[in-house]
Amino acid sequence: MAENLQKNTFQIGEIAKFFDIPASTLRYWEEMGVLRPEKDPENHYREYEIEDLMNISDIIFYKKLGLPLKNIRQMESTSPDEHYQLFEEKLADLKEEEKALQQRMEKLHHHMEAIQTLRDLRKNPYQETDIDTDCIVSFDFIEREKLLRYIENPYLYSRVQHSSDMKKEQRGITIEPSEESEMDPSQIIWKNTGHRYIAFLMKEEISDGFPNDLMEHLEKIQEKYQTGAVISRFLIEAREDRKIYDFYKTYVEIV
Question: Taking Cα atoms as reference points, which of 100, 58, 54, 48 lies closest to residue 78?
Fold first, then answer.
């Protein structure tokens, strides 16, 4: 088409190829009133002129800015101040989108870090370590605020047990130390006392009875250590060996 710019008119196929956009898009823009090509009075085919090329270029420019067609249709009759206000509003929208995108990226990083933790625990089980939380409070799935925290970061979900009575288990969610003063003391189910822990990967099958390998790991640790609290922090739900498991990073307190 570039070789034929001396032509007075162009067919829709030529325009679509030149701008690398579907002919259906050009037809839609016409339906929405942002593009108004003339039609041959004899065969009723669309005939695009040089002026239409500029119009299409402007439409593509504004589309790349994220403006909807309803705004693009009115651009010619919009004053400079109204242009500025429109662009200012769009910029504010983009900043909100950027913020939401950043939050989504952080969640993806959390998820990837959980998978890397799983890999590390498989490679180096039973390492002595500090626990990575200071306070865990009770968590019931009907508690909306805590459920929203879980949605933001599933690794906050924890299960609290004690090696002296493993049948007793409490569901909890970890909180920041600064939040502890805001909590009802009766909700606190575990606090860090500064002891060291042994960490390993625990997996629990998603099936009747939810069988897991926690006791197997605990008995192995108890061959060498006296143990106290057992904290299991959720990592990921995934398939392994044709079964579905919840994987946890489990900490066993050394006392």
Answer: 58
Residues with Cβ within 8 Å of residue 177, at least 6 apart in sequence: 134, 135
Q: How far apart are CA 103 and CA 28, in angstroms?
A: 35
Burial of residue 32 (CB within 10 Å: 0-12, 13-18, 19+) is: middle
Determine the Cα–Cα distance for residues 253 and 226; give it in Å rounded to an integer. 8
Question: What is the per-residue pLDDT across 107-121, written as a single tens digit (0 to 9) for each?
Answer: 899 899 999 999 999
Neighbours of 218 (CB within 10 A): 19
97 contacts 69 by C-beta, under 8 angstroms: no
Q: What is the pTM of this model?
A: 0.74
- Cα gap 6→8, rounded to integer Å: 6
Question: In sequence order, which ranges of 32-152 are alpha helices (DSSP H)?
Answer: 50-64, 69-72, 80-123, 144-152
d(CA 138, CA 89): 43
Task: Tell me how far apart the alpha carbons of residues 132 and 221 are, in angstroms, rounded to a whole number.
Answer: 20
- Residue type present at position 211: P
7 falls in which pLDDT band (50, 70, 90)? low
> Which of 34-48, 137-151, 201-215 shows the lowest mean pLDDT across its residues?
34-48
